Backbone:
């Protein structure tokens, strides 16, 4: 059944006719629909009804005015299925139900409390139609809708009758606010004169009609008169534009080769104090000086000669500081210091530099970023630590020259601010400076018991863990080596940790375990005696497998001896 967009007859016809005298009798449903409309709630289109049976039906989507605001309403099936609306209950042999849009913008039907009575609607309901139930018959529908395709607003006052002062009208291209009274003002009055009260013009960025989500302010005036504009165009053809994008401000003369001029009144005479020349892309300043208000203040002097541009602080031993406003506070972001500072150099951050380049910032993010946007597959950002001189004659490089150190420093438990200790470092050195035969090394050092200790060295000879520091694989990790080093033993030998531990010992003769071994010290002894004789592993005053007996290894067999402390060994393989 198609919505006729008017008060229609109670019928089963596909295209209901308009309500008619002597055919449709007044009932409270009509009054209730009119009462709801008087509060600004009434349907304007949609809501066609199909699949009508004795107690089920399907309603299409539609639109309503609710409190004079347009609202879209989703369609709904009333068949009692999961998530669908309930069927018409048929409590009475003849019952008049109301099809409504409830306060949550969901289609519902309201049921009567007695036979031959129209159901009661609830606060917030917008009435769509009366649904008549009669036992054994298909449902009949009486639309109580309206035909509305546009809406305007008229604002008037009493001047010997209604006099229109302003109208608001819309079409496909614009909405027009029209002041109808000549010489009369249009005023927007705020509640007070504070910054908390603002008149705003905003845009709906995602164009979804939801005025509670992504809105962007493009113009506002607060109660103090502070005006904010996202962008501004001046001139009959927008010759000058001021725009903002990603917090950047662009001031632009849109006319080719024309200037932007800053003009002041100097003694009653207009003077161009500064000109941005559009024809040659230059800024021209008649007089330029950055100075303090007292003779003792520093003066920033900018000069231009054939040798280039010089920016200079003319006051001796005074730095040049670059500051920004952070949360209302002036924060130094970069300092170029002179001999009056800690060191001559550039400091990025709030403190004077303590090195030719000093970067300091109190935050947990990335302090220094070296970025590259190259599209090449073989190139990225490169960082070079270069030593351009050496310890050799004439400044050439020599073996064992240090190439640079990355030092990791921090305060200890009792030091004052600025008193830092070195906890770790990475250092590169030249091992062989001969041209065409260069060898280098990279060492990692850590502080151990207050002393800087080399933990690992990477060189052309391999990787070395130094100073008896342990190498540990974390729990759950794995470690794999395709082979272990081997040590050949041809005669009676007392084993030592430095030479024999952790290697395959290819023994053709007897061996003696070390005295006073450390816990975890282990030796893998392989009998490779070509004569087929057994070899003896002498316990050297210790115990092997809890016995005061030496171990015997038959030919082409092996044993691994592991110290478990207190001169005790466990031998695997015997």
Residues:
């Amino acid at each position: 059944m198609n919505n006729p967009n008017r008060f229609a007859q109670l019928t089963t016809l596909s295209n209901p006719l308009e309500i008619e005298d002597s055919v449709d009798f007044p009932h409270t449903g009509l009054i209730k629909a009119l009462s709801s409309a008087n509060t600004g709630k009434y349907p304007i289109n949609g809501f066609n009804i199909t699949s009508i049976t004795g107690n089920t039906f399907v309603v299409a989507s539609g639109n309503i005015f609710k409190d004079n605001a347009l609202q879209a309403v989703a369609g709904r099936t009333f068949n009692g299925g999961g998530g669908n609306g309930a069927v018409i209950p048929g409590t009475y042999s003849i019952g008049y139900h109301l099809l409504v849009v409830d306060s949550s913008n969901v289609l519902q039907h309201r049921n009567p409390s007695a036979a031959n009575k129209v159901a009661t609607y609830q606060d917030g309901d917008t009435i769509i139609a009366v649904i008549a139930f009669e036992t054994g018959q298909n449902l009949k529908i009486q639309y109580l809708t309206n035909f509305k395709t546009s809406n305007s607003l008229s604002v008037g006052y009493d001047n010997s009758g209604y006099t229109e002062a302003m109208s608001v009208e819309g079409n496909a291209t614009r909405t027009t606010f029209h002041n109808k009274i000549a010489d009369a003002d249009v005023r927007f009055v705020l509640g007070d004169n504070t910054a908390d009260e603002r008149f705003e013009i905003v845009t709906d960025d995602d164009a979804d009609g939801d005025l509670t989500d992504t809105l962007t302010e493009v113009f506002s005036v607060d109660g103090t008169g502070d005006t904010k504009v996202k962008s501004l165009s001046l001139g009959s053809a927008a010759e000058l534009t001021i725009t903002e994008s990603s917090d950047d401000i662009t001031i632009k003369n849109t006319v080719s080769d024309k200037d932007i001029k800053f003009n002041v009144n100097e003694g009653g005479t207009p003077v161009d104090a500064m000109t941005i020349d559009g024809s040659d892309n230059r800024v021209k300043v008649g007089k330029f000086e950055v100075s303090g208000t007292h003779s003792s203040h520093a003066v920033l002097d900018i000069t231009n000669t054939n040798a280039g541009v010089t920016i200079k602080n003319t006051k001796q031993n005074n730095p040049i500081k670059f500051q920004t406003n952070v949360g209302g506070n002036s924060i130094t972001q970069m300092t170029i210091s002179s001999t009056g500072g800690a060191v001559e150099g550039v400091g990025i951050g709030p403190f004077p530099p303590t090195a030719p380049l000093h970067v300091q910032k109190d935050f947990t993010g990335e302090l220094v970023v070296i970025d590259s946007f190259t599209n090449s597959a073989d190139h990225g950002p490169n960082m070079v630590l270069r030593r351009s001189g050496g310890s050799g004659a004439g400044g050439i490089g020599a073996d064992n020259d240090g190439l640079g150190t990355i030092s990791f420093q921090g305060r200890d438990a009792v030091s004052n601010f600025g008193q830092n200790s070195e906890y770790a470092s990475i250092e590169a050195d030249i091992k062989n400076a001969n041209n065409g035969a260069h060898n280098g090394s990279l060492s990692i050092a850590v502080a151990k018991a207050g002393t800087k200790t080399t933990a690992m060295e990477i060189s052309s000879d391999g990787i070395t863990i130094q100073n008896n520091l342990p190498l540990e694989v974390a729990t759950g990790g794995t470690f794999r080596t395709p082979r272990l080093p081997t040590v050949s033993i041809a005669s009676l030998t007392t084993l030592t940790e430095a030479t024999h531990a952790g290697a395959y010992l290819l023994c053709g003769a007897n061996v003696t375990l070390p005295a006073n071994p450390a816990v975890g010290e282990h030796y893998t002894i392989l009998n490779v005696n070509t004569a087929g004789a057994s070899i003896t592993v002498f316990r050297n005053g210790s115990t092997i497998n809890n016995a005061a007996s030496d171990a015997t290894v038959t030919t082409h067999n092996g044993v691994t001896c592991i110290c478990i402390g207190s001169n005790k060994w466990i031998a695997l393989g015997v």
Remarks:
- The domain at 28-143 is CATH 2.60.40 (Immunoglobulin-like).
- Residues 244 and 544 are 83 Å apart (CA to CA).
- DSSP finds two helices and 44 strands in the chain.
